[in-house]
Amino acid sequence: MSKQDSSFAIRRLHSLLGVLPLGVFLIQHLLVNHTATRSEEAFNTASEFMGSLPFVLFLEVFVIYIPILFHGIYGIYIAFTAKYNVGTYSTFRNWMFLFQRVSGVIAFIFIAIHVYQTRFQVLLGAEVDYDMVHQIVSNPAWLVFYIIGVVATVYHFANGLWSFMVTWGFTQSDRSQRVMTYVSAVIFVVVSFIGIQAILAFI
Q1: What's this model's pTM, rounded to 2 decimal places?
Q2: pLDDT 10s digits, 12-29
Q3: CA-to-CA distance for 53 and 203, rounded, in angstroms?
Q4: Which residues cross the membrane (predicted)?
């Protein structure tokens, strides 16, 4: 396999992992958090159920953490080596390309801190429940950080769907790519609303 073919294969894998499993996990995670809008007990029940799944440690390591590390580290490499044409060609898609890379860096930092504040604390004997999240976002600085982090992560996922569809050959025509732009925009708005509503429910 040539260097060019190898790079293309890695980018395809990078794109795939952003949707499966990471995109699916993102939506599932936000929906679990959204149960806090119903009640504290509803969130604790949902969180306890997720934490008691069979082979939960295996699932977290191989379905979440390893894909996140690969997607995140390679994504940061792309972000800092990519050539940006915003100043020269100020087209919509060039701006989306730039925002995709910026949001990816923000998302990676946010996820790392979020994992430390929640899952890592479990290793120290803490329990992921309503009170844990409430204590974090009750701090105005952390609240703003979480809202920015969630919006950046959702944008990265939604806009990444557009790239995924192109990279994997599902949308080749201008019309299909334009339709996918609208679809990804709707996904961004809807999922961001769910995420922000979930965060505010913990205050």
Answers
A1: 0.93
A2: 999 999 999 999 999 999
A3: 28
A4: 12-32, 52-77, 98-116, 136-158, 179-202
